[in-house]
Amino acid sequence: MSITNENIENYIDEIQPLCTGILGEIQQEAMQAGLPIIPPQVARFLSTLLSIHRPANILEIGCAVGFSAALMSQYLPEGGRITTIDRYDIMISRAKENFRKLGIEDKITLLEGDARDILPTLNGSYDFIFLDAAKGQYHIFFAECMRLLHTGGVLLADNILQGGRTAAGRYEIEKRQRTTHTRMNALLREVSNMPELETSIIPIGDGLLLVCKTAAYAPQQSSEETNT
After folding, report:
1. How far is Cα 54 from Cα 106, in angstroms, rounded to an integer?
2. What is the mean pLDDT of residues 11-35?
3. Does any domain span residue 147?
4. Is 80 helix (H, G, I), strand (E, B) or coil?
5. Number of domains in the chain
6. What is the CATH number of the domain that holds 27?
7. Is residue 52 part of a domain?
């Protein structure tokens, strides 16, 4: 479901090329098979952002078939690394095969398991974090990401507008989606008003949240999070 004018979406898709080479083959195969990869507009935005930011240490939450990690690896400086997380065996297997095809295994560490369990075990500092995992858990992941992101670092979160559902009223949403709707709205309102963060919500793809951490971050825990 598009969150912007369909004519504009089609125009952008028409003039901006897909990836080329083996990465392009992986992109097209995944799109044709309906596998969960970032859409072309988001891929182009991510490429442009990393061309500017040039992070040396990247964390990705939600590897899927490895397309976005492979795309980001093209912008690593010498000695740079990506750590990516996924819990699904079939995706992990596909990602490993794609990394092998591209010859980038030495640049990427794939951690297998639930990000809720893995993130608290990580230490160190990341220049860039790409969050593209279970949307109902973003409120949990975000606090861990801010702990791991160094001051001056950038986080990009995908799918935050949920096909436009995030902007809808609570009772316009199907009951099974209301928890995610409530959590996403609470998160977006909190981070948009945190003085320690510079944020922007970008309505391309299914919605992006772009965050720069400008100072130490101290999240406010809601009663819902406490009971989660």
Report:
1. 18
2. 88
3. yes
4. coil
5. 1
6. 3.40.50.150
7. yes
- How big is the chain, counted in residues? 228
Is residue 164 in a domain? yes
Residues spanned by the domain of 13? 6-215
String of DSSP letters for 21-55: HHHHHHHHHHHHHT-----HHHHHHHHHHHHHH--
Could you tell me which of 77, 74, 1, 7 has the C-alpha nearest to residue 44? 74
As beta bridge partners, residue 126 has: 149
User: Is-contact 108 82, C-beta < 8 A?
Assistant: yes
Higher confidence at residue 70 or residue 215? 70
**Structural domain contains residue 221:** no
pLDDT (tens digit, 9 = 90+) per residue, 77-103?
A: 999 999 999 999 999 999 999 999 999
CB atoms within 10 A of CB 227: 6
Three-state DSSP at 222 gives coil
Cα atoms in the 13 Å half-sphere on the side-chain side of 65: 19
The answer to whether the CB of 125 falls within 8 A of the CB of 148 is yes
Q: Which residue reads 């295994």 in tokens?
A: 105
Q: Are 100 and 124 in contact (CB under 8 A)?
A: no
CB 180 within 8 A of CB 135: yes
Give the pTM: 0.86
